[in-house]
Design a protein that fits this description.
globular, alpha/beta, eight-stranded mixed β-sheet
Length: about 325
């Protein structure tokens, strides 16, 4: 049937002496009546990922739940935990308990042999990945990423192709481990025909992928505040290196906020870190959890229109 004729036939016709009452198209009325497709985007940040458990609790307290999860690195670890569990405060508390119990050796155990081999150029990493994989195994509830009850999409970096990749299926343990494989620290992980490392090196807060996947409302759970200017004094070579990487990550984060805040509802939760805790320091999880929860509650108490306003969002990231 000719589309023009079909539309005309479906249009309301006036009665004698009457007027036509406009009827909104069915698709438009459905869009207004349904909840926007909602994504949670979880950044990487090693030990700073603890604050995301507090943010998740604040969201669940308001019964805000995602239709999809997009994450990388430590954020992918957190996302893999909540993807297969009820979207409730109890789940956020369970995640918080894991973070409170973590020590650095649970994630970054130092093996003198591996460390020496790495420093001598005989290995491509300094820390064995077995401890991280054991941690993941204890809490993963699905074998393939595609089997996650809440769709989970994970960002990694393909060393062979030299490109960022988004993974939505594949062996869950390998995919999450690859996304958290900090280059030079953990060994790369081969998933199918790709050699993968931490996606945070190229896109630590993958807002762009959430938009491409059709999200209309995006809650961003960062581990660094893009408006924060770190102290100029570094804490040794490792601190200087991490600080430099952090500057690159913040620059990409700010650019994506500016690019997408006018296209979707973008709600960036604060990432308070008053003590300037380093991503390699696992001794302050409780402080990060509490501060993340409190700041997220304050942000989410604001009207949604204010939360999603692009210019205001960039001005008020930590208020």
């Amino acid at each position: 049937m000719d589309r023009t004729a079909h539309v005309s036939a479906a249009s309301p016709q006036p009665e004698a002496g009457g007027t036509v009452t406009a009827i909104a198209p069915l698709a438009a009325r459905r869009r207004r009546s349904r909840r926007p497709r909602t994504a949670f985007v979880l950044s990487g940040g090693a030990s700073l990922g603890a604050m995301q458990a507090g943010m998740l609790r604040a969201l669940y307290e308001l019964r805000i739940a995602p239709d999809l999860l997009v994450a990388t690195s430590a954020g992918a670890i957190n996302a893999s935990y909540v993807a297969s569990r009820p979207q409730t405060v109890a789940t956020a508390r369970g995640l918080a308990q894991i973070w409170r119990g973590l020590q650095r050796d649970d994630v970054f155990p130092v093996s003198p042999w591996v460390l020496a081999s790495g420093l001598l150029g005989k290995r491509d990493h300094l820390v064995p990945a077995e401890a991280l994989r054991r941690l993941l195994c204890r809490h993963l509830q699905f074998e393939d990423l595609a089997g996650a009850p809440i769709p989970l999409h994970v960002v990694a970096f393909d060393l062979d192709a030299g490109a960022e990749v988004l993974l939505s299926d594949g062996p869950a343990l390998d995919v999450i481990a690859a996304s958290a494989a900090v280059p030079g620290v953990f060994p790369p992980v081969r998933v199918h025909d790709r050699l993968l490392i931490d996606g945070g090196v190229v896109n630590n807060t993958p807002i762009s992928h959430a938009v491409a996947l059709g999200a209309e409302r995006i809650y961003v759970l960062p581990t660094v505040d893009p408006a924060f200017v770190p102290a100029t004094t570094s804490r040794g070579a490792l601190g200087a290196a991490i600080g430099g990487i952090g500057l690159v990550m913040r620059s990409r984060f700010e650019a994506d906020i500016a690019l997408f805040s006018g296209e979707v509802e973008l709600i960036v939760l604060p990432a308070p870190n008053a003590l300037q805790i380093m991503p390699t320091d696992f001794g302050h999880a409780d402080r990060l959890l509490r501060d993340g929860l409190r700041a997220a509650r304050q942000r989410l108490a604001q009207p949604l229109a204010a939360l999603g306003d692009g210019p205001a969002l960039r001005r008020d990231l930590v208020q």
